[in-house]
Amino acid sequence: MSRIREYLVECRRILRIAKKPERTELNEVLKICGVGIIVIGFIGFFTQTLLYFLSSLIGSVELAIIPTTIILLSFIFLVFRIWKE
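Predicted structure:
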């Protein structure tokens, strides 16, 4: 029972400290989330297009998954390497 009481005390303390975000902060968070959603959508579209193209060349989706994965991992590695510099 004391663990529940401690948890409620901590929750009340956090709610007292927390504040409502300002409009500029909210807009910044929404922009970052929007860009993230667009980037993930682009990666999914690129993956689907690449898999379709390779499977039509190879003739089998199962065999096209391996080169698609290698290409995507190489692309992600390259992006992180450029971003790190």
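Summary: The chain has one domain: 23-84.
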